[in-house]
Write a structure and sequence with these properties.
This protein has helices at about 1-30, 40-45, 55-65, 70-80, 85-90, 110-120, 125-135, 185-200, 215-225, 230-235, 265-275, 290, 305-315, 320-330, and strands spanning about 145, 160, 170-175, 180-185, 205-210, 250-255, 280-285, 295-300. By secondary structure, it is an alpha+beta fold. The chain has 3 domains: about 40-100, no CATH class; about 100-135, no CATH class; about 145-330, Muramoyl-pentapeptide Carboxypeptidase, domain 2. Strand 3 (about 170-175) and strand 4 form a beta hairpin. It is elongated. It starts with a helix and ends with a helix.
Length: about 325
């Protein structure tokens, strides 16, 4: 009996010893303890990288670190850059982007052009970005793109963006009291309000050129070429497909006392009031280097009250406004 008890006691201690050894091996000598090492996200956090809810973020952030970007640079890239820019940055070698993070219309693929233009013109980097996007570092008409969303009241038509030769707005209507002049219906009521408001203030205005077809503009441009060399004509007449008049949203307007222009006082009234009715002065003074045209006080363009008001407050051209605030949404 005593012998059996001793055997049982020995077995009991042996079992305890075996259990202890197994526990010791599992928790002390394991090569992969469950929570003793930080994961990839924790490593990034320790380096100062702010995590982003994106499936590929950890791999992408590590790629940027390998390229030489600091944690602070990575944070700014993901805070300010578009998806397209981030993709391009990941595909290229390290670049110092410190001057460009908060420029909303920045395009990484144009970085070298931005830097060169900024240095040559000695302007701000934000202005360099916008002007290069407008291709002002290239000769006018040297790179033409098709205008997008041609029926939008915000469509851009200039020496970069062109309309199809067969484009005709589908809502052209005659202006009351001026049956030979057509504009788009979407602009008609606001234009009548503008004329009425001007009259109340004893400013008497008359529209004299509105919608023009592609062929009409072509004939006009060819006529001017017989009078002046092309480099001169391009400063005061649009090439066919590049005229805002083809949109049905542009109006040439004059003072009743002038043949085709506005008096100085009438022009001042237009500058201070036209935006209230959705119209902008499309080719303002001292901006020919951007628009490519001489000042045209008489040429107004409808873009709607909201955008006309914002543009008026900013004091920039529509070319700049479109690139900064509208291009991405119009092209998507």
């Amino acid at each position: 009996m005593k012998k059996d008890i001793k055997v049982l006691i020995c077995l009991f201690f042996i079992l305890i010893l075996i259990g202890g050894l197994l526990y010791f091996k599992t928790n002390i000598f394991s090569n992969n303890p469950p929570s003793s090492l930080p994961n990839d996200e924790e490593i990034l956090l320790e380096k100062g990288v702010h995590l982003v809810s994106k499936e590929s973020f950890v791999n992408d952030a590590n790629t940027l670190l390998e390229k030489g970007y600091s944690a602070d640079e990575i944070n700014q890239i993901y805070e300010y850059m578009s998806e397209g820019n981030i993709k391009a940055i990941l595909e290229h070698d390290y670049e110092d982007l410190s001057n460009f993070y908060q420029i909303s219309n920045f395009d990484f693929l144009k970085l070298d052009r931005y830097k060169a233009y900024q240095m040559i013109e000695n302007i701000s980097f934000s202005d360099a970005v916008t002007r290069v996007n407008l291709k002002l570092d290239l000769p006018f008409y040297s790179e033409i793109e098709k205008a997008s969303d041609v029926d939008s009241i915000l469509v851009i038509v200039n020496k970069v963006y062109s309309l199809p030769s067969d484009y005709v707005p589908n809502d052209l209507v005659a202006i009351p009291s001026f049956p030979n002049l057509q504009i788009r219906e979407v602009a008609k009521d606001d234009f009548e309000k503008l004329l009425a408001a001007a009259t109340i203030d004893q400013v008497y205005l008359t529209p004299y050129s509105t919608y023009r077809s592609y062929d009409y503009q072509d004939g006009l441009y060819q006529k001017y070429l017989k009078e002046d060399p092309v480099e001169v004509v391009d400063t005061y007449s649009a090439r066919p497909g590049h005229s805002e008049h083809q949109t049905g949203l542009a109006i040439d307007i004059k003072s009743n006392s002038h043949w085709y222009n506005l008096t100085e006082s009438d022009y001042e009234w237009m500058k201070n009031n036209s935006f209230k009715y959705g119209f902008i002065i499309r080719y303002p003074k001292d901006n020919s280097f951007i628009t490519g045209y001489k000042e045209e006080p008489w040429h107004i363009r409808y873009i709607g009250v909201e955008h006309a008001t914002k543009l008026h407050e900013l004091g920039i051209t529509y070319d700049e406004y479109f690139d900064i605030y509208l291009k991405d949404s119009m092209n998507n």
